[in-house]
Fold each of these.
Amino acid sequence: MTAVIVQELRIYPLKSARGISIAHACLGRAGLRWDRHWLAIRPDGTFLTQRTHPALARIATALRERGLRLQAEGLEPLDLAFEGPGVGREVRIWRDACEAVDLGDAAAEWISTALGETARLVRAPSTPPRRADAAFAGSRLVPLAFPDGYPLLVCNQASLDALNERLAEAIPMDRFRPNVVLVGLAPFAEDHIDCVQIGAVRLKLVKPCTRCIIPSTDQRTGLRGIDPLTVLRTFRFDPVLRGVTFGENAIIEAGIGQRIERGARCEVTKENTENR
């Protein structure tokens, strides 16, 4: 039997900005540490993503000793502290209204220049402000910072390989913005996995991830290119979720405070199909 391995780990400190490939990651209550901990918003508090602002992909992120560094062409780097004082304000992510920490006018000027329109930057408070949808996460309270809806996204390299065989031009995995990429599974085997055990960490796959226009976006240039949804729709449309799916949203069942390593071996548990 082929071993299942963690092929890649990625975090996205600023939601919808360029991600960071990492060798190991500490698991916090709200997912991988510092993942989607910062957010760009409109002046009214509505969140911004590559769906409407693909230029976010041109903002590079780097974790430094004391915080996050943002870089964009033509701008001096912007350093943001992991924690610290700030003005509280309400932000909105989809239907969720939650508290955030506004990072001030200098940060707002930087992100406004990078995006070419008025915007502001906020940081998640020390206590994660949101909760995952109980319809899929179950009765446990699953805290969130600023991801769309769940702490982690798990993808399968073989599924991307199978998709690329159908596309006129292959696309890289970073278009789907996963946190954990697994290798050693059959294509789309993730559809039927209940849990992934990585050492002391246990991730429960709770909901297929419905996709939007972001996978058509080059994650370095921000330019739209080939749209895989056209092909995915022919064999990955979920009538219940009313969307095209690729990858699985996951919650943390065990292992908060533990570390996940790239290259780690995994054990997978198949789901009880009667309950999903």
Amino acid sequence: MKFLTHFRKFVIVILGIFIVIFAFSGAYNTQNIDRLAYVIAIGLDVGEHEPLKLSIQLSRPGSTKSSSDQSSDNNIVNSVECSSIESGLNLFDSYVSRKINLSHCKVVVISEELASQGISDYTYTLLNSVEMSPHANVIICKSDSEDFLISSKPILESLASNYYETALSSSEYTGYTENVTLINFFSDYTDSFKEPVAILGAVNSEQSNSLSEIKNDNSSNSISDINKDSSYIAGETPISSKDNIENMGLAVFHGDKLVGELNGLESIFHLVVSNKLESCNISIPNPLGDSESIDVNLRLAKRTKNNTKFVNGSPYITSNINVEIKILSTTEESNRGNSDYFTKENMAKIEESCNKYLSESITNYLYKTSKQFNSDIDGFGKYAVKYFLTMQDWNNYNWLESYKDSTFNVNVNSTLKSGYTFI
């Protein structure tokens, strides 16, 4: 018995030694963290001599600097012309001293030129990679994606990877864009009920600022002028931040090809119709006459109810929208009590003004998606499929091509809550 007991202890000790040896032997594997180069952003452009120019932004190991000058030094961007993404990554492996790894990639930036030619092959390739996160954001850039990556400077973040995450989270409180991921884009592209969108990005420059000033000077006085600060797209905002990136608006696709753009205000309408709006600030016409407009905070009071039916063979789409608004701006007259916004009569006038403005604006937005883009980015197709007995009948009808024949009826019901000033 003593022999068996000692023998068992001996076997356990030997097994323990082998486990420790094999556990720590992985530290010398080629996949060790010290032997990997982590890509935090990928850029795709049309190449001059090859079909594709692939750019990668690498994270400099051990870097935690936060100033704009220091962060630009840590912004490692390399580019190569290649025939495919995989071949380009292989070329980078032969150039960089470490193995390229995509597991920490936060964004995929695609130039407008490439997106207009079709990007399905690239999305398939990226999602097919076991390293690539399906939650990486998709940005369509109005300039070369290489310039976009070079211009990304994490001023308020110590890590560039955190910078991309926080920069894109602004959609939660502005509504000026949508947080579109690689898997979202791919799912909408392969769907027969709707079309995909992507984040619209650009490099802020002096030239773009001048362009936005010209647009404002030449703008006509119309109901949309009250929201001119929300009507910019990326690359044309008047923000003074030379050679830095900005994301505003949405890139609209028909299939896998870019067909148009939505500005910040139209992006808000898209989020309202598709039940994705969390919060935003807009201006509505002031029916009380003491100012041109009233700034309000806008939220969905209930889920938007969309419905699709067919009239004479063409889609007839109804959207019933319920919103809650809170007044953000007041005038001197209202503060003196000469124009009390919160009398029962005036509250009804403000709600009616909001209803009319949103109804007209959202209707114009929907006709733009159908007549100009022929792109059902709001997914009305899922309400139309119930009229078809089989999927074959649905596919034969070809909703994504028939969306251009749609007519719309938008109804908005707004409820005015006490403004923050009056709580």
